[in-house]
Structure formats: C-alpha cells, structure tokens
Amino acid sequence: MEVKSSAGFTREMENLFSFPGQLPNLRYATREQAMTVPAIARSRNILAGSIGTIPMESYNKITGAHINNRTLIVQPDPALPRVNTITWLVDDLIFYGVGYLQVLDVSPEDGRPFRARRIDPRRVQATIDSSGTLITGYQVDSKNVPSSGLNSLIVFNAIDEGVLARGGMTISSAIALEQAAYNMASEPVPQMVLLNEGMNLPSDQVSAVMDTFRRARRERSTAYIEGPIKLEVVGMDSAQMQLVEARQHLSSEIARLMGILAWYLNAENASATYSNVASERRSLVDFGLRNYLTVIEDRLSMDDVTPRNQIVRFDLDDFLRGNAAERVEMSIKLYDSGIITRDEAREFIDISPAGSEESNDNGITPPSQTEVTPIQ
User: Fold this and answer.
1) Fewest C-beta in 10 Å: which of 36, 117, 244, 292?
2) Intra-chain end-to-end CA distance of the chain, in Å
3) Please, are residues 294 and 25 in contact by the beta-carbon 8 Å criterion?
4) Alpha-carbon span 42 to 269, nearest angstrom
5) Does 348 or 71 have the greater pLDDT score?
6) Are residues 128 and 8 in contact, defined by beta-carbon separation less than 8 angstroms?
C-alpha cells in the first residue's frame, strides 16, 4: 500500500524531522505569519533576494570551459524574469526545506527541461512506497504528474527541514512579542482603573467621567476629576516588560535560525568590522548563502536537467568584487605578474579592450555582430 506525504520527503526524513505525513510542522506558525516579524522578513530578503540577483553560468566539467547557457538557466519561466523564479525557489528552501520547478516545455533535441515554473510546496504531495523509504511519484493539487518530461517536477531538497519546522517556537515567540509591542504602542501608558470609593454612578455618568479623563490626559499631562475617585495602575510599562531587551534577544535567535550573522539584523551584542564591501559579502556567502547556492547548482547540474559533463554554477565575481580602486589595484597586480593580458585587465575594471570600437558617430555603442542564442 502506498502512503502519501507532502513536500517531497521520504518517510525516513519525516521521522528524522518529526512531521509525519504532512508539511514541515506548521503548528506554531505559517510562512505568512513568520514574514510579519521584521527580523525574519529581512533575513529572508537578504538570503533569497541576494541569490536571485546572482547570475548563473554553465561550464564543461572536464575542461572548465564556459558553455552557452540553456534557456532553463537564462529564464526558466517564460512569464517571469529569472530573478523572481530563483528568489521564490530559495524562499521555499528557507521556509519548507524543499522547492519545486514544474517543467513547462522540453527540448526537442534531448528531451531535457526547456522551461519550468516554480510551484508552491504546499500544493505538492509525494507518494511513498509501502516500505516508507522511496518516493514513487508526485501530485500537484492532488493530480498525478509524470516522473519525467512535460509537467514533471524538478525537486530541490535543502540540507534541513526548513525554518518553519525547526524554529516554530522561536517564530511564535517573535510574533507574540510583535503583538505585545503593538499593544504597548496602542496604549503607551500602563493600564489604569478609575476606582470609585463613593456611591455608585449611573452608566451615563461613568462614561462621562472616563471620557473627561481621557480627553484631559490627551490634551494635558494631568487631569482632575471631582468626587471620591482615585487612579490605580494595574499594568506594566515597556521598561518593566523589557520589550526592547526581548526583541534584541529574539533578533539574535532569529539570526541563528535563518543562518546569517546577527549584525545583519542589528541585533544587540552583535558586532563585526570589515574593511570593504567585498569582505562583508564574502562572509554572507560563506555563512548564509552557500548552502542554498550549492543545492540549486548541484540539482541543475544533474543529468536529467543538464547534459552530461556540464555543470551549472552561480557567478559570484560581480557580487564579491570590491570597489573601483580595489579592482584597479588587483588588475595591475594580475597584469604585472603575467596572469592576465592587457585587454583582460581592462575588461576586469569594465573598460573596453584597447583599440576596440567603443561607439559610432552618434556616441551609441553598436550592437554585436554575432548574437548568441541560448541553447535549448
């Protein structure tokens, strides 16, 4: 008998991550709720947004030579820019630990995916064999999809179960803290009770007394009410509740949960000193982006997507390079050591090769005479 499971995990993985037969444990928070927490939203945008803007390139696995990208790498979804597809794919890996691209078209030459569209993991169910160890198929919106070819799924499995499954309590605490901060902002003073120590008043007079008190406090710092009425404070102010300290602590916890350095979230006691932008971004790649970059690269380099002996890699050169002065200094050193030619050095600092025609009579750079068409 076959057993259905969501999100593409085998039964062994589900037992390991403790969410049998369902999506990662959403008992404490959903993705939409998690994104209401500023620290989580910023972490998501740093991770997913950064990766979405990094271009991908194809290479010969044996020689290392650059190969023209297939259309799937240039623009997977014909309806969306590549940055949108990759950003939301990384979003799925972050929150659910799994991401899916559904094949929209295949290449007539080799049958490999030509176009693909990102599918929300909550729409996908996996079918597990009777032993609970092997995925035998997938369903999208409860409809079976083929195992290969048109309408099949390209599955990207993250290295863990996703933050919703392993960080539900932390996310819930952050949501509750945001609610407490909102409540405190809505009522910026401790909760107060007007205690009448005399005879009971009719309801209309009670309302009038309370309205008078509120109006006086809004307009002036003090208020006066006649009668045997005294003020009692029954709540705590923000200092007593330690909202600022709690938010700083949770920012640090969220940074650990999301896998980035705490100083990116301006969390307390988080400090780092960097000499330039390149080193900052290097730390982000090493400690935050690398896991997701590798998952996507390795999956797109598999034989069912990319021809054998070809690999796909993110091109981090532009993302990691320093400022103009640093690039010029590096190009001079590389040229003086004989590692690169003069034209390569000029290209390194975004200057046209020496002697090339840079513009026509109108001052407009002419188009290339040879256009490279993406490989299907």
Assistant:
1) 244
2) 40
3) no
4) 18
5) 71
6) no
Confidence of residue 177 (pLDDT cuts 50, 70, 90): confident
Name the residue with higher pLDDT: 351 or 75.
75
DSSP codes of every residue in 168-217: HHHHHHHHHHHHHHHHHHHS-S--EEEEE-SS---HHHHHHHHHHHHHHH
The string of DSSP letters for 214-249 reads HHHHHHSS-----SSEEEEE-S--HHHHTHHHHHHH
CA–CA distance from 267 to each of 40, 241, 288 (Å)? 12, 19, 16
On whether the CB atoms of residues 63 and 96 are closer than 8 A, the answer is no
Question: 164 and 25 in contact (C-beta within 8 Å)?
Answer: yes
Q: Is 38 helix (H, G, I), strand (E, B) or coil?
A: helix
What DSSP letter does each residue of 131-177 carry, written as one string?
A: TSS-EEEEEETTEEE-SSSTT-EEEEE-SSS-HHHHSHHHHHHHHHH
Q: Kindly write down the DSSP assignment for every residue of 85-105, as one continuous string.
A: HHHHHHHHHHHHSEEEEEEEE
DSSP class of residue 339 equals S
- Token pair, residue 150, equals 């048109």
pLDDT at 25: 42
Write the pLDDT tens digit of every residue in 22-54: 444 445 688 998 998 888 999 999 999 999 999
- Alpha carbon 315 to its chain centroid, in Å, reads 19
Report the C-alpha gap between 202 and 239 in whole angstroms. 37
DSSP structure class, residue 81: -
